[in-house]
Input
Amino acid sequence: MMRPRHLPAVSALAIAIACAASPTSSQLIVFDPNNYAQNVLTAARELQQINNQITSLQNQAQMLINQAKNLASLPYSSLQQLEQSIQRTQQLLAQAQRIAYDINQIDRAFSTTYAPVSANESDQALIANAQTRWQNSVAGLQDALRVQATVVGNLDTHRKEMSAVVSSSQGATGTLQASQAGNQLLGLQAQQLADLTAAVAAQGRAQNLETAQRTAAQDQGREQLRRFLAPGRGYQPSTVRMFHQ
Output
């Protein structure tokens, strides 16, 4: 049995242990709902701002991609084929025989070979001019046929080029590619018109030379008839010996 004199000491020890086991008021964790809600709302707003920034960056990247597509060149070009076709047609026109597409040559020919027949011209000159005119007409027809053959040969080239351009335009990724495809199609149409113009010009040249030949031949025929009927220049009968008679 504990003696009474020891009771104050035991009580003091129990109180000390109790005080050491329980935290002080400064160490207690206090939960504030209002503060917690405010922190969550702030974090949500910051997250939304980050999402907005990410979306903005994505839009800017897509805009740059679209701009790159709009500036991308069409991977196919028909320019070289068009230039070669035009050069072939030009070379044929430049190779026109005898009277070419030259104003000075035309003026000289119509002042000499195709000029009205003079009474002072010799029969040999008339015959030579008639032969020259016939050669000019034949050359004009040959040139026209050569140009027409070239134009017909270009049709297959134009068909292939148009098919290639149309196929490329269907896969165009931007305005520049679509515009370039449209320009190439217009170039093909221009080339076809150029071939058509060349063929018409060559055919017209041949027809004009033939018409000029007939006109000059009629004028020369009248002059030769006049000379034949002129006094002293008509038909003179003569005795002809045959088989060594």
Observations:
- The chain has a mean pLDDT of 77.
- The radius of gyration is 53 Å.
- The chain has six helices and no strands.
- The CA atoms of residues 80 and 86 lie 10 Å apart.
